[in-house]
Specification:
This protein is of the alpha/beta class. It is about 30% helix and about 20% strand. The protein contains four helices and six strands. The longest helix has 13 residues. The structure holds zinc ion (ZN). The site of zinc ion has 7 residues, from loops.
């Protein structure tokens, strides 16, 4: 998705848009030099989604072989439509969430009650990517 890519690994200033690495949070520097709050580059609860981003996400979803849901209750639209779209286009769906979700029945695998970071670390180890 290029520059507009959403990632939890990046932060940006809510006021001026300056990008920061997550080291900024680790060092507990939560404010930009302009005084704006530095936030994760993902959509937070209650925020509206960019229509271009949605279209791009839908395209990626349709092309995916494996669709992994990380920490979503899957009760909020439109986020909860993506696992269905993925499934309909032949992807395997894995849901990793603290609690069961309404879409667990369509998932190929469901992981509840596990720390997401820990699960991802184990997957990465398994794939020998680290
Ligand atoms: Zn700023």
């Amino acid at each position: 998705f290029g520059e507009r890519s959403q990632t939890i690994q990046k932060l940006h200033c809510h006021s001026c848009g300056t990008m920061y690495s997550t080291d900024r949070y680790v060092e507990n520097h939560l404010y930009c030099t302009c005084g704006g709050f530095i936030r994760p580059s993902v959509v937070l609860f209650g925020e509206s989604l960019d229509p271009h981003m949605l279209a791009a996400a839908e395209k990626e979803t349709k092309q995916s072989d494996l669709f992994i849901v990380l920490g979503s209750s899957l009760v909020v639209s439109p986020a909860n439509s993506f696992p269905m779209i993925a499934k309909e286009h032949g992807a395997r769906v894995v849901i990793i969430n603290h609690d069961p979700t309404p879409l667990d029945s369509i998932a190929d695998a469901v992981i509840n009650n596990r720390n997401i970071g820990e699960v991802l670390r184990l997957i990465t180890e398994e794939l020998s990517l680290n």
